[in-house]
Amino acid sequence: MATSRAELACEIVEQMMKRGFLLNLGIFPAVSHKHSGVRFTITVLQSFECIEQMVNALNEEFADTLKRHHYSVEQIKIAFKTIVDTGSASMN
Prior knowledge:
92 residues, three-stranded antiparallel β-sheet, globular, PyrdxlP-dep_Trfase, PyrdxlP-dep_Trfase_small
């Protein structure tokens, strides 16, 4: 899940741990500074109910964290937007 800011990702992971879920950080230097996020792994050993509980909790924590930090999904989209200059190089 993209957060763009490392402090947002850290806070979400911390809150999820308090709720009993283990997630991982994707922050610098593993990713660029403005491309931080939260990662998680789903395996066949987890039930659909457990996965659904984690996703619902993550959705709540994501929304709450953005609200506390006065940050929006639109700001995250902007941070992850890639600008491609198609006029500067030839593909021939």
